[in-house]
Amino acid sequence: MTVQTMPAHDETAAPDARPVADDLLRRIERFYYREARLLDQEAYAVWLGLMDPDIRYWMPAMETRKRGDLRGGYTDGEMSYFDDDLAMLKVRVARYEQPSAWADNPATRHLHIITNIEAVETGTPGLVRAFSCFENVRNRNEKDQDIVHGRREDLLKIGEGAITVAERRILTVQNVLLSKNLNTFF
Predict the structure, then answer these.
(1) Are 150 and 172 in contact (CB under 8 A)?
(2) Quick one: CA dihedral 40, 177, 84, 154, positive or negative?
(3) DSSP character for 103?
(4) What are the pLDDT digits (tens) for 35-72?
(5) Which domain holds residue 92?
């Protein structure tokens, strides 16, 4: 199956995009809620199993631009917080297991809230575009707390027994993240 990559500025479903059937939408919702729980529990090895082998996990840096600027709030190939494939995600996960990962010792407490889930057909069997909003809360030690809000735009591969994320674009509402680090997944 050829994966359809998302254009850099496909921020919303086309107005005439056909929503997926309700049973598939419910299955996608369950997938996202399980993913949030796995991330909250730092079950990263299991979470990696939800990623497609050809995943693109991309979090572009948002830029404040005038409405008339046709580039929009971000541009593919320019600044990004993450632009990872599966190998890089595995490196990031393996880092958590290292004694030198001082930013996670003591452990960070995570909370992933996922809402506004919507999914539309792509015209290719087995591929669905899904949209969701998130709130990512991280708390560490007594006073360190970060909250990141944003949207996720995913290309999901739908199989008989599994759903995998073939592509994820993470768009924050903040154009400057004040976090000391980004030791989290969205």
Answers:
(1) yes
(2) positive
(3) G
(4) 999 999 999 999 999 999 999 999 998 776 778 877 66
(5) 22-63+72-98+108-172
